[in-house]
Description:
The structure holds 2 protein chains of 2 kinds. Chain A contains 4 helices and 6 strands. Chain A has helices at residues 18-26, 31-34, 36-41, 51-64; strands at residues 6-12, 73-80, 90-100, 103-112, 115-116, 118-126. In chain A, strands 1, 2, 3, 4, 5 and 6 form a 6-stranded antiparallel sheet that branches. Chain A starts with 5 loop residues before the first strand and ends with a strand. By secondary structure, chain B is an alpha+beta fold. Chain B is built from 4 helices and 6 strands, in the order βααααβββββ. In chain B, strands 1, 2, 3, 4, 5 and 6 form a 6-stranded antiparallel sheet that branches. The chains are: A alpha+beta, B alpha+beta. Chain A binds chain B through residues 12, 18, 21-22, 24-28, 30, 42, 50-53, 55-57, 59-60, 63, 68-71, 73-80, and chain B through 18, 21-22, 24-28, 30, 32, 42, 48-52, 55-56, 59-60, 62, 74, 76, 78-86, 89, 132, 134.
Amino acid sequence: MEPGSDIPILLVTPDRSLPHRYARASGDFNPIHVDVHYARSVGQRSNILHGLYTMGLVARATMRAACGDPRNLRSISMEFRAPAFPEHEIAISGTVRSVEGEVATLELCAEQDGVSLVRNARAVVATPRV
Amino acid sequence: MTSDRIALSWQYSVGREKIREYATALGHREPWYFDPAAAREAGFRDVVAPPLFAVVFCQWMGPAILHPDSPIDYGRMLHGAQEFEFLETVCAGDVIRTAATLGEASHKGSLTFYVIESTSSNQEGREVVKGRWTMIVREA
Lengths: 130, 140
């Protein structure tokens, strides 16, 4: 991981049932995620993806750049800027901002249809020399 | 000085099938999230959980958010921000205890911010994850 280098882009298109499968996996059945009519009644154009699902994709993309090893992910943080929707492609990208010893700090982006889903997304990874 | 509005803790028993279900939903294919032999070969004691599996054993802070003393209007709540610090990996068979505290809310215009701080530890008393969960409620 060199400062300024980009991690491989991760592209995911959650299918229509993904919010329900993620809800079952996480235990979070907030109707805004799984009920289209409820979501519209509170002003969304459709049911919205769980923020922690998007964060999970960001974590997956970050770890993939660090051998996929969960022990290498030290921390992750972000603000959720805009809702994401099923059936539209999400692109996760990132850049290595700095490296200190065996620890790299990355800045990450998550976009859908040209909209940034997150703000100030950052991860710290261990990069042990192989 | 602020006092915590809510402080409580809960326990969660981590199982292989739930890890597999969660890893599948996130689109993971790495074998250590699914196969105990592959996990052990990679140095884990059993099938290991992806780091964001913390949402599962933290129960997405549901016990705190839905607590009778909680000031958070769940029906109008949105997830504003999230931080996790990962200290140890979590594997099938672990029992995780999570302690959560909700302090005083802050306001910015028509938005109310609630920050829940959490710490989760395993059955050996080792801290595994720290979380900072920011929920936002917009005034009607």
